[in-house]
Amino acid sequence: MAKYLILIYGNEQRWDAMGAAELQAIDEGHRAFRERAGVAVTASGQLDSSGTARTLRAGEDGPVVSDGPFMETKEVVG
Fold first, then answer.
1. Backbone dihedral region for residue 76 (phi beyond 0: left; psi -120 to 50: alpha; all else: beta)
2. Distances (CA, A) of 67 to 51, 53, 54
3. Which pLDDT tens digit goes with each residue over 7-60?
4. Could you tell me if 30 and 44 are in contact, meaning their C-beta atoms sit under 8 angstroms apart?
């Protein structure tokens, strides 16, 4: 059976400005979706904001760490 990856993008500033009640309502909606989907959802989670992202690249002397989720391609997810 095919598996799919679903990404939900949002405005990070909007998410950071949300109050606890609004975040709880969104979380409850996601929880209800997972309950209805049952075993069809194999995993779920929330990523940290892009400000905390780090990129690892192979260097001559080992991994090189740089700030940010910068990719050298047009695709967002490879």
1. alpha
2. 8, 6, 5
3. 887 888 898 899 999 999 999 999 999 999 999 999 888 877 777 777 788 888
4. yes
| DSSP bridge partners of 64 | 57
Q: What is the pLDDT of residue 78?
A: 46
C-alpha closest to that of 34 among 47, 43, 26, 25: 43
Q: Are strands 54-59 and 62-67 parallel, antiparallel or unpaired?
A: antiparallel
DSSP string of 15-42?
A: HHH--HHHHHHHHHHHHHHHHHHGGG--
Instruction: Determine the 3-state secondary structure of 62 from DSSP.
Output: strand
